[in-house]
């Protein structure tokens, strides 16, 4: 069997200026521009292998070893767009194999539990688009490919870049100007780290797609957010990233998370993603910043109760004096720190604890199932790993 | 000792269109008009006796039997205004005793635990103003007196009226047009009932005065609320009350509660009053309305986690089939219903339970400490009860 194959990894990104609301549901065009930080693929990534062969009978997809449907309208849009770009190449150069007419076998795996509610769809669609683009040897730029990823899952467009990424909402009806661009590379501001507190959810939250639609339709405050609040904040946040101004970046990030969740609460019926644990983490972050009289940490929450805490490497000791004290019983620390390093966080806490006047809830860790320690990272990466057996065209395992 | 005495009771009111934000902190002038329902004094009321005598050495206040300071700026404003009005009477009629120059002894008692977090300051200031006005035989209308009550506690102005009350924000800098007016009397729409679920609070919430100031100062969405959302909703809600249109009244009430809490969440640092129990009650109300395909109940939350549920008398069976099922272990039912009546709520639930497809959290009652069953009620009432001994000028007990 003659099988062509390409593999890539793609990162998760966590928005600091939130995407919430579509102006076009089919094309995934947003009601506002957004900004995110791309996270390191050492900790959170999707690995995808795309293969094609004249012998494949149908398009097939395996996610984490299990066959899944490719039938969703969104996935089909992505595949159509990629095949169209390949067709254009083939029309210009008849010596190319006619991949655009062959079926695809795709396998994809996350290195983190999907159950954690860490919006894996962004990494998933970014890896899918990137792996096929690599297989097809498409010459399009990352921004061009981001428009295809966007059709799969809005926020996926931002996972085509590393570092600090903007998704410019665009104005055109066909979405051709709604794309991701780099604000600053990983190397521009490499000190940004993230601690993710995976918070136990009571039950399934409102899915983000239907949640957004409800907010757009029913929230009286939403128009103010998209027309006035976000456009101003977008420029301010871009500037804070370019100037590596963490206090401003942090404040805008926290405010935007709150603003997004406020419009959810203002929806009818209201949507709640933050639970009591989330709120305690928010209060903790403000208390820590106040304690040090310095902006050490910023929180942000997506459409779920998980807290993503951004901080700079140089503030890690200050932050972890509190975080490790409160969450040391939760797994996730050992993979990043030696026992000695961890004991230093405890020592740091012991040094300051007499000056701590705010309430430290010793039960707080009970609402958190896992800590993921990571940092800003690069965009999709080529890899020699392959999830599909080149002899059979089926998943390797 | 020659002692003059007057006593009154005053009600609690629970806003359905929320007051949140001051444009003048000293005069308690609000950033938006608000609407409330006055609750029955059988269940929630303050009783206040005001006495005066040329022999009293100083102004004194006893709250629930304990001496409290009258020194707060707000209380002083109220006393000054009332004495000024009395002085005007005395100047016109020299036969009147010169109460305006004498000291006051005031005693006040609530028939409900202040710990329940049921904003007792509204009833308290309304009763204070009304008792002194009665003692002074002031000819001013309730609306005129409401301006004085407003200076004590903003929402107190609405407790000068029974039934359905608007607090018109006014435009003048001196606050002389910021007053309460009746939208509809108790008899206009007497079927309105309220079930208050007293929710256990984790710890002290942000006090409403400082909370408001923070929202006005920091929330980006707040201006939209006060400039556009509330003015429109105010007219719609007034109309729904005049037309006794419960579905519209209920929807506006729920939306306004959510909008107010959304601006709290949009404050920086964010303010949270709703806890996980509050949110579950919100979801329950929406589920009940959906179940009956009819608007049976409306929720509203003030600056705390307590839920106030408004409903019409004719829907009580429908609502209590669920509420009694979920909260029968919580005290508050026995004082209003016989055992047989309560068993009928259970029977009603048994009838419908097979059709209930939404989740009924059997632990939900654990977050609720007490149920208060009440209804729309009249404004302040004269009473022959007195809390002050006419011989000593001191509290009776």
UniProtKB/TrEMBL annotation, chains A, B:
Keywords, alphabetical: ATP-binding, Lipid biosynthesis, Lipid metabolism, Lyase, Nucleotide-binding, Steroid biosynthesis, Steroid metabolism, Sterol biosynthesis, Sterol metabolism
Protein family: Belongs to the diphosphomevalonate decarboxylase family.
Enzyme Commission number(s) of this protein: 4.1.1.33
Lineage of source species: Eukaryota, Fungi, Dikarya, Ascomycota, Saccharomycotina
Domain Diphosphomevalonate decarboxylase-like N-terminal as annotated: residue spans: 10-179
Xref: SUPFAM superfamilies: GHMP Kinase, C-terminal domain (SSF55060), Ribosomal protein S5 domain 2-like (SSF54211)
GO cellular component entries: cytosol
Lyase found in the keyword field: yes
Pathway recorded for this protein: Isoprenoid biosynthesis; isopentenyl diphosphate biosynthesis via mevalonate pathway; isopentenyl diphosphate from (R)-mevalonate: step 3/3
Cross-referenced Pfam families: MDD_C, MVD-like_N
GO biological process, one term: sterol biosynthetic process
Protein name: Diphosphomevalonate decarboxylase
Gene Ontology MF annotations: ATP binding; diphosphomevalonate decarboxylase activity
Keyword Cell membrane: no
Catalytic function, reaction form: (R)-5-diphosphomevalonate + ATP = isopentenyl diphosphate + ADP + phosphate + CO2
Residue ranges of every copy of the Mvd1 C-terminal domain listed in the record: 195-381
